[in-house]
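Today's session is about reading a structure prediction critically. Students often jump straight to the picture, but the first step is always the sequence itself: look for stretches that repeat, for charged clusters, for runs of hydrophobic residues. Only then move on to the predicted structure, which in these notes is written as discrete structure tokens rather than atom positions. Here is the chain we will use throughout the hour.
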Amino acid sequence: MTDTSLYDCLACAPHLLGQLDRHPQLAARWQTLPRREYAAGQPLLMAGQAVERVWFVASGLVRVAHLSAQGAERNAAFHAEGSWVGWGTPPFATNSPVDIFALEPTQVLELGYAELRLWQAELPLVQELLSDAIRAVLARSAQREAELLLLDAEARYRAFLDQRGELVERIPLHHVASYLGITNVALSRIRARMGLVRGRC
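Below is the predicted structure for this chain, in token form.
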């Protein structure tokens, strides 16, 4: 059920570095992208705002979250160094149904949709990279839907550990529980059965 390649794409690190090395024009454009700094807890994007840019996470960690009408928050995804974060299908603007927050001090490179459209028009490689990134996003979405429909809570947690093991120590457990669609207590019981209880909260 798990597949770590779902978090891999031609536009993601480390493949992106190779693309920049092989394509000087793309590398020159990349160097012009503005860098933004976000403190832990600071939003990159709020629900209802227009989505007109994507971000490449240079350092740090962010989470994507939905907020229900009843005020319950559910984490949809986590994005760490070397990955892209945004919403919708770049470069088509839409209104965001999600919030995106930094989970820790985070630095991103910001690529606006207007700039992305210029890159697409002038650099044929960019469309290939964008198409592969969208493929990866769709594959991850399908995988997550299958896990929510077919796996019980413990199996979902094991899948999360398999897929995102490198992030486990950086994500507070209540955010992991939210991502899995279970309560903090339920996750604590699962971790106890697995022999993983070490006093984290």
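Discussion point for the tutorial: The two ends are 28 Å apart (CA to CA).
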